[in-house]
Structure formats: structure tokens, C-alpha cells
């Protein structure tokens, strides 16, 4: 009886945390909509969101800030879930699409599309996904030695990332006359996002998020270790590949819209894990909501901190993420 009571109390507490994260995400969206070159009060924002077209701020909110904020929402969700999945597969809190090289594959293929084949830029998301998936498979093959270990995957990822980034640098050298359009992609930027970008990312986000949530229990089993998960009937290598591919899809859909935005997949899942624990049925929705909060607030800071100059959100995340990575490196001493 006491065990059941304690279990229910624990679940209730985690659901309360999820509700708190949801409130923070909603507040961050409102803050993102309200702050910029022109400040808009909450009442005007809500009236516009609920269908009013009479406000003087209608064009600013509906045509400029709302699509940008929605892109931030979906990118934050996708990168946070991608990082959470990679950290689970590799059993390492420093795993992240940007750090281990998955993002570099998407970046190389995306940059190639933008610089070499600009007429086919509408295929950026599927091409970036192929790049991320190819990078993930390359990392997996480099790490394979009668199975893979989380440490070998991370080391292989760092090596693959360096190799792929050199390819991007080579493209910049050969196509220096076209580089301006790709600079924003390499930094990670949410400026000038439109409803068209929202329409592009939503299907990939819905598919990726749904598959991730449906696979949460499998990740919990995988976290028990290879021997234990195999004894429970789980195809360990098959699901490890599945989660890497799913992480690549989520990361690529975000990267193809905003560019190489780092550290979201590192900071958010780790912070969520410290609060709600390792149960992926709770960790994944918590990471998604916290990803929305972090990215919306970071983008808002980039818009207003040095106004009228706007800093790309990738710079803000770098300022936050690099010290956090060094903190993890010192605390865990994993590498």
C-alpha cells in the first residue's frame, strides 16, 4: 500500500513538473511575440491570436513574429528530442546532434544544396535529412567493433564532424561568390521566417515527435544495458539504429530551416533529466517543452539585447551552451 502511494506521489510530482514546463513554454511564446523593435502588450497579442484583425499590431504579430515564434517552437522541440534520444542511445549526457557530427552531415549536404544547386533549395529538408542520416551511419560504422559502445560513438562522431566541417570549408572556398546566402545557415538564425517555413517543418515535427513518444518505453529498456535489454527480447542494435535515424530526422528538419543551431540538444535534455529523471515517457515531453522555452527566450534576447542590431539565435545558444558543455565535461569526466 505504501509503495503504491509513493509511486502515485512520484508520478503526480512529475506530471506537475510537466504542467509547469507547459506554462513556461506558453509564457516564452508570449514574450517572444511581445518584444522586439516594437513592444506589444499581452491583451493585443491575445486578441490577434483569437482572430481580431483590428489591432494596429496585427501585421507585426501575425505576419512577422508569429511565424518566427512557431518556427522557434518546432525547432526547439525537434532539437531537444533529438538530443534526448542521442543521449539515451549513447548513455552520455554530452551527446548532442551538433557535437557528435549528425548536424555536420546535415550542414554539409544543406550547404552543398545552397551553394552548388541553389535551384533545388526547395529540397533542403530531405537533402539535409539524408546528410544527417549518412553522417549517423558513418559514425555507427566507424564505432562498430563487434558491437558499439557509447564512448566509441562519441569519439567517432567528433572525428566525422571534423571531416564533414572541412568539406563545408572547402565549399566556402570554391563558391566564395555565393557564400552570403549560406552564412546565415551556418550560424543558426530565426530571422525572416515566414508561414512557408512553418508549413515545411510541421509535418516532419509531427512525425518525429509521434514516433519518439511511441518509442519511449523501448528507450527505457535500452537504457538497462545490452545484456539486460536482449534478455527482455529487445533487438538492441536494431533499436539503437532506429533511435539514431529518428534523431537524424528531427535534427535535419530543424537544421534545414534555421541552420546549424548548436547546444539546444545538449542543454535542454540534460536539464530536464536533472528535474524529472531518466524515464523517457516523462523526459521526452519535458525536454520538448523546455526546448520551446529555451529557444524562444534565446531568440528574444538576440532581438532586443543589442537593438537595433539583431544577434542570430545561434550566437546566443553558443554563449549559453559552451560553458554548460565545459561544466559537464569537468563534472562527468566522460572524455
TrEMBL record:
Record has Cell membrane as a keyword: yes
Superkingdom of source: Bacteria
InterPro entries linked: ABC_BtuC-like, ABC_transptr_permease_BtuC
Entry similarity comment: Belongs to the binding-protein-dependent transport system permease family. FecCD subfamily.
SUPFAM superfamilies documented for this protein: ABC transporter involved in vitamin B12 uptake, BtuC
Main subcellular localisation: membrane
Residues passing through the membrane, by range: 15-40, 60-86, 98-117, 123-142, 154-175, 195-214, 241-268, 280-297, 309-329
Subcellular location: Cell membrane
Pfam families: FecCD
Membrane topology type: Multi-pass membrane protein
Record keyword Nuclease present: no
Alphabetical keyword list: Cell membrane, Membrane, Transmembrane, Transmembrane helix, Transport
Protein name, per record: FecCD family ABC transporter permease
Signal peptide: none
